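Hello forum,

I keep getting stuck at the same step: I have a sequence, I want structure tokens, and every attempt I make locally crashes halfway through. Rather than fight my setup again tonight, could one of you with a working pipeline run this one for me? It's a single chain of 389 residues.
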Amino acid sequence: MKIAEFIPQVFYDMIARIAPGLIILATIVAIWFDELIPLREVFTEMFNESPVIVSMVMVLIAYVVAIILEGVRSDVKKFIVFFAKLAKHQSGKQQRCTQWSEAWDDFCNLYPNYEVLKPFRPADAVVIDVLRLLNPSVGSRIVKLRAEVTLCQTLGTGWAVIFVLLVLYMLLSHIMPNLNSKLSAGYCITALLLLIGIRAITNRCISIDNRHLRALYNHWLLLVSPGVISLSDNSNANVPVIPIDPPAMLIPMDAVRSDLQLKDKGRGYRKILVTKIYEDIEKPATEIVWNTPQEDQLSQVLLTNNIEVSMFSQAASQDLHVHKLATEIYCVLDGKMEINVNSEPFTLQRGDMIVIKPGTIHKICETNNKFFCSVITTNCHGAEDKYCV
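Reply #2:
Ran it on my machine without issues. Output:
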């Protein structure tokens, strides 16, 4: 297992299980401090002899306590769901459906054409695993939020159990005189503090859980954003579709070579397949064969849904940039090109190809070598997905 894959799981266990387990044990010791004198003496003696082993055992005990409390909470949750139905309150499942709908509404505000193409929502655990595999940085953030939610849930359950035990202990101390009842007032204050803690940790859990769900669903929608809209589906009848005339685009190399924009005094790039037309420099193509535009002519481009194709030459000047969603494929058609990928230079010759994944910092380097290069951008979101470094 790679370190990058191992560390998030260790952090999850530390935050979600070991931390609340230790807090629960500390709470028990603080409340029944006098009653645990024999156990404290034994623990102190063992800790003085081998502190490392005792510390490891305490961590293990805390882990097991947290696991047990998770099981207790799972059983209690069934009763909560039952009473929520009686009281006509939203269940956890209904709350997740609400969060999913709100995330989808926000997504449709950004991409209106996708309104009729709502994807399915798998189980949260499946979404987390997919995000961790395809986007580790996002996956780590989601795992951290989920660990915080579990911490709050475990801590709240543990304190609730301690509160019930403390109330029973106080009742028995009055019924059975042989029990220690001298600290009844202190126990009452402790019970009140536990109630306040349970209330606070529950509110915090709700807040973090909402953040966790919205982040989870937002990233899932971006990941599975629909592709080309199907013309055969009647439900898409009112959705704007991509023009299909002309049905193809042929790009002759001679036409590319004679393009003034790709000469040394030009800007060094020309878009041919686009996801958005800029009317001041482009117009929809009417012919299959791409012709070189003159200085006073608009360039003919083929409008596509989520893919762009551009031509680059040595006159191009790029800033270091990154795409969060798009994947770029650079293909050298002639000459020798240099490209910087995550601060590492690469030299590509005719016929070479390099694939730039989302999240990779890159740029075409300025060079005296002449070259022609085609760039294919998939899952393209235009200028909105370009972030200069």
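The chain is about 50% helix and 15% strand. If your local run keeps crashing, start a new thread with the error log.
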